[in-house]
Predict the 3D structure of the following.
Amino acid sequence: MIEEALIQEVTADLYSAALRRVPDDTKAALAAARDRETSENARATLDLMLRSTVLAEKKDTFVCSDNGFPIYFVEIGGRAHWQGDLKGAITRGFNELVDTISPPLLKHVANPLTNERGGPGKDMPAINVDLIGDADYIDITCIPKALGSGRFASIKTFISPSLADIEAYVMECIIDAGSQHCPPVIVGVGIGGNFDMTAKLASRATYREIGSINPEPVLAAMEERLTEAANATGFGPMGTGGETTALAVHIDYAFGHGYTPVAVCFNCWINRRAKARIYNDGRVERIF
Amino acid sequence: MATHSLTLPPTRESVADIRVGDIVYLTGDIVVTGGLPAHKRIVEYLDAGKELPVEMGGVFIHLPHMVEENPDGGWTIHYVNPTTSTRFNNFLPRFVRDLDLHILGGKGGVNEETAQAMEQQGCIYVSLLGGGSPIMSEGIKEVRQVEWREFPAHFRLSRLRVENFGPLTVGVDAHGGSIYETLSEQARGRLPEILAQLDKRRAEAAGA
């Protein structure tokens, strides 16, 4: 049985970890990009990024001052057994951490109706739930989404678009964001479903491990060519020029109707996300 | 690409030789904020002809900063990191002129109108590493002044003493050069070719 107290503890740990530690797949992708880059400035910026990840871990501090919009993505296995108030446990875990974490957090969470800063607040943290087959565990992923990357998410509804239409739209979004969202980014693309599903597909696509192969061959090929296309724009690391604007483009899709929403969103280069798997017997496994 | 160590306050002359793509380190006092409310309040002060509570010293950086007041009255700075300057574009041409800025900073760049004001004023834009908080924070040596304390920490207007603060990449120089405009135009110029390449690769994938 998964106890409420354990969920609360894991929730707090994940947010704290996500703020301090750039995931291994991202560090590896940055290092690989550094070796590929031919521009001296871009290489120096990528070196600086890698140094920042090392220093944050060494000093046990935050990689970025923007602790982001806190999102918890909860995937519940069909055979997971839990007890108590899942939402309450996540909210308490988050709120308690916000009050006690060191160093202290800046107040980024805001009431959009008044622009007043600070929490706790309505639907805060954001909890996004999915069901996953017959697994005997609950997966929780924490994604603190900063302003720089969150701001450039976009969605457009097409009528029966071709792949060329979709790819042209993705490129338009990449060029609109340009230098501003702390590149090199991870681009998430959602295709199909309905309005809210598409956004979720895109957002979830950014969490996928960099270097993992899309199980859908059409999308695997699209990801490869769009990554090349994004990097051909030349915005480069921190948008000051270079051949690395995207570390990856990740795409997901769902069956839909003739109207096809396409969503595009970004994770900045630190690609903050921390994931834990909680088994029925109370074991907790950190996935990343 | 040249590297410059600048002692603050800067002047039109001290930034004149710096070019887009150069690297800069700053030593001296910088004025920082991360927030829209501070920008709005600066406008109120400018409109009313009132003197700002901090001496600008020619440097203004979009730098959210976590500072806490000590019981003995001093300040502890926990960390800093830049925010995106483009969201303040509407304020910046006036700030450059009326606050007599010679160094503007943050991340993500500024728009064309701001770059034009900077050319007239003799001002450069420096890009800080986003997600570089552990590095950027090392350069902060002292919190000199914190004003507008009713705002959340990162929205306040503060003066910080920095030493070898950097490396900062010059994104806009005082001669009309802007890496942001160049890259944006370049990307849009390349787009037809990029889309043609995508078409080609898609056709190959379909045929495979």
Summary: Chain A touches chain B through 59 residues (CB under 8 Å). Chain A has two domains: 1-21+63-146+271-288, 147-267.
